[in-house]
Amino acid sequence: MILSLVLAVAGTGMAQELANFSRGGQRPIISPDIQGDSVTFSLKADYATVVKLSGSWLGNRPVDMTRGENNVWSVKLPLPSPEIYTYNFVVDGVAVNDPQNVLVQRDGTRYLPMLIVPGERTENYGEAKTHGTVSHPWYESKILGYSRRLTVYTPYGYENNPKKKYPVLYLLHGAGGDEEAWISMGRTAQIMDNLIEKGLAEPMIVVMPNGNPGQQAARTLNIPEKTINWRSEEYRNAYVNSLCTEIVPFIEKNFRAIPKPASRAIAGLSMGGGHTISASILYPELFDYICPLSAAGSATPEQITALKNAGVKLYFLACGDADFLFEGSKTLDKTLTEQGLDHVFFVSDGGHTWANWRLYLNTFAPKLFK
Amino acid sequence: MILSLVLAVAGTGMAQELANFSRGGQRPIISPDIQGDSVTFSLKADYATVVKLSGSWLGNRPVDMTRGENNVWSVKLPLPSPEIYTYNFVVDGVAVNDPQNVLVQRDGTRYLPMLIVPGERTENYGEAKTHGTVSHPWYESKILGYSRRLTVYTPYGYENNPKKKYPVLYLLHGAGGDEEAWISMGRTAQIMDNLIEKGLAEPMIVVMPNGNPGQQAARTLNIPEKTINWRSEEYRNAYVNSLCTEIVPFIEKNFRAIPKPASRAIAGLSMGGGHTISASILYPELFDYICPLSAAGSATPEQITALKNAGVKLYFLACGDADFLFEGSKTLDKTLTEQGLDHVFFVSDGGHTWANWRLYLNTFAPKLFK
User: Fold this and answer.
1) pLDDT in tens, chain B (370 residues)
2) Is there a contact between A97 and B97 if contact means CB atoms under 8 Å apart?
3) Global pTM value
4) Is A351 in the same domain as A217?
5) Residues of B with CB below 8 A from A322's CB?
6) Cα gap A368→A290, rounded to integer Å
7) Domain boundary among B89, B118, B147
8) Does a structural domain hold residue B143?
9) Residue B6 included in any domain
10) A 73-102: CB under 8 A from B
11) Are A204 and A152 in contact (CB under 8 A)?
12) What angle (nearest 5°) sits at the alpha carbon of residue A102, between those of residues A65 and A52?
């Protein structure tokens, strides 16, 4: 009785809090629809003139969709190789998301539907049977001048083992990201859940801070007005200092973290790779595991020697061979070799993409804390 | 140097992890742009024929936008009264979100940009100075047959006062929602942050479960295949039983909750209001604070008498006078009066909307645990 009333109201377009119903009994449109080796995308667009599909695996070549029954436009394509792709429709020149797809990632202000193509490459990107907890505590930064939001993953079992302490991976995003980037685009919770469930990675805490010092938190307009130039010499390392002298102590106070270098890892992509390198130079005793990914950063022979003397259990450098930062990674690899710092240089296909950063996390996380 | 490289790549449309840059130095389009008593919405749409603005305060009457310089379409409207509204553009008949707006709410699979109009009504809906922590633990439900995701708000100060215990509000969503509905559309974290910061509400934990027993978690496709009919007599109260005998103990074990009826409140909207009433009937000793909001549910005189005998500190019934469930709330109010159960019947303008549910939370939260 109540339900039929609610559905009747939905027809007026006035009711809120109803979207789950579209996932209920009747769903006339399924999109994306993977069947065998193909995938079909569909969108109802009554008044459109031209509807195209834009997909991250299609490069800059959106494909035409065809108007069918009831003005449902569709296109059937060969399934690309296993990976997570993003896509959207282009209706008369304007990008439109897929209203049928529950899987959506956020990149800044852009929300993009995801296509997860099953396979070996993506087997850790879907939901595991067991789940860690994702939380968003705020830490007070005296260095940056305000409280700032973190994302923290604690592994499955954390709540049920109140005496157990865990190692910590600090996982940093790039210049366009924020404290949700590794969760949303990087599938960190799913990757860690799967790796830990399979016994491939040690149960660990993963801390994902916001690496843009002028931003208090993602998706808030409460960004304090500052006259600070974060790129000035004075503030050049402000975020890395906050990370190493404020966030690390905050985590070790408020989570059951093992407060030792052998139980701390740092990894980061692009700008976060630069932060990773800077942290390892400025605080060579803090982290025993150092993983710059597609990194925007470099280190001198003297800095690498100092780091080698401080002791490093794993130096995992990764980059795509088509990445615009590949030359920098090759130079760093050479410096590491010349200074005799034992390391891994993991070179993948492709460029500066989340496909690579997910692959890197899935590859280095099993090497940590062992 | 690095930055200019990154920006160069952005032009190709291939780079990811770049969206924050649009919030940087140059932002040619600001939308929505509130100036004085008006608000202007703008969208760049090069090839569109007709662009309209649809807004929750405009009813079913989208307004035309005008093509301006560089194919930026815009419309300037009088600012509606203080409230949170949602809106989107309609480009040649298809709904499109505002790429300039960082404030987005999620309702099932729909992402909708928000317009927050400042004023007394909305002063607790924006970011406070202090912030609680929002986390997403999973609890194991033997009754429902799988692990399920919760949203938990712990108030500012929870981490810094490790001996302090807190009362708990269980806050339930409606049939179309999930465990993120009260955070995303309800602005619960902001409302609680503001109320607690101002000393208007007791610091409390707020627990927001997923009230659809067939759904493991929002935004996952890992929904176990079940042949269970959740609406059958056998499973009719399965979720409420899980809430009262599984979620409450889980919270009281894993968070510093005061495990007493006087420190437990339950509130819910629509279907969640029905769950609230059911929980109060099935477990009359569990909660001393009971708040059905725009509730889809009823109670017999005998059930109310049993509840009265169990002892209730606050019964806060709320509904909009244009709500399609208003008659049911009036009937419940009458039964409560006839059975002599002291209560508040809070009647607001309007209907079955998040505008009302935010108002109700902002109104009853200060009355809890005092």
Assistant:
1) 233 333 333 322 333 333 344 434 444 789 999 999 999 999 999 888 999 999 999 988 999 999 999 999 999 999 999 999 999 999 988 888 898 898 999 988 889 999 999 999 999 999 999 999 999 999 999 999 889 999 999 999 999 999 999 999 999 999 999 999 999 999 999 999 999 999 999 999 999 999 998 888 888 765 555 667 777 888 889 999 999 999 999 999 999 999 999 999 999 999 999 999 999 999 999 999 999 999 998 999 999 999 999 999 999 999 999 999 999 999 999 999 999 999 999 999 999 999 999 999 999 999 999 9
2) yes
3) 0.91
4) yes
5) none
6) 10
7) B118
8) yes
9) no
10) 89, 91-97, 99-102
11) no
12) 15
How long is chain B? 370
Residue B228 counted as domain residue: yes
Whether A102 and B47 lie within 8 Å, measured CB to CB = no
For residue A284, the number of C-alpha atoms closer than 13 Å in the C-beta half-sphere is 13
Residues 6+ apart with CB under 8 A from B10: B18, B21
β-sheet bridge partners, residue B280: none
Compute the nearest-CA separation of B283 from chain A (Å): 23
Residues found in chain A: 370
A185 vs B17: CB contact, 8 Å cut-off? yes
Q: Examine the domain organization and report whether B191 and B277 are in the same domain.
A: yes
- Choose from A18, A20, A42, A358 for mutation: most chain B CBs within 10 A: A20
Contact B221 A102 (CB under 8 A): yes
The domain that contains A338 carries what CATH number?
3.40.50.1820
Q: Are residues B137 and B113 in the same domain?
A: no
How is residue B208 written in tokens?
């927001």
Place of tokens 């949303």: A184
Set of chain A residues whose Cβ sits within 8 Å of the Cβ of B12? 60
DSSP assigned state of A190 = H
Question: Could you give the maximum distance between any two Cα atoms of chain B, in Å?
Answer: 76
- What's the CATH number where B84 sits? 2.60.40.10
Query: Do A265 and A320 lie in a common domain?
Result: yes
Chain-chain contact of B131 with A109 (C-beta, under 8 angstroms): no
Buried b (16+ CB within 10 A) or exposed e, B7-21: eebbeeeebbbbbbb
Extract the tokens encoding B250. Answer: 């889980």
Question: Any CB–CB contact under 8 A between B313 and chain A?
Answer: no
Best mutation target among A4, A9, A14, A16 (most B Cβ atoms within 10 Å) is A16
**Do the chains contact at A134 and B135, CB–CB below 8 Å?**
yes
Residue B145 shares a structural domain with residue B182: yes
Closest C-alpha among A139, A271, A108 to residue A216:
A139
**Do A41 and A109 share a domain, yes or no?**
yes
- Residue B123 inside a domain? The answer is no
Range of the domain at B146: 133-367
Find out whether the peptide bond into B32 is cis, omega within 30 degrees of 0: yes
Question: Residues A213, A255: one domain?
Answer: yes
- Same structural domain for residues A354 and A208? yes
Distance CA A124, CA A131 (A): 13
3-state secondary structure of A249: helix
Distance CA A209, CA A236 (A): 17
Do the chains contact at B2 and A47, CB–CB below 8 Å? no
Q: Chain A: nearest CA to B2, how far in angstroms? A: 7
Strands (DSSP E) along chain A, which ranges? 33-35, 38-44, 51-55, 63-64, 66-67, 72-78, 84-91, 94-96, 104-107, 110-116, 133-136, 138-141, 146-149, 151-154, 168-172, 205-208, 264-269, 289-293, 314-320, 344-348
Choose one of B118, B145, B177: the last residue of a domain: B118
Instruction: Indicate yes or no: CB of B177 within 8 angstroms of CB of A20.
Output: yes
- Tell me the pairing of strands A314-320 and A344-348: parallel
| Chain B residues close to A101, C-beta within 8 Å | 109
CB atoms closer than 10 angstroms to residue B225:
4
Q: How many domains does chain A have?
A: 2
To the nearest whole Å, the CA of B6 is away from the closest chain A CA by: 8
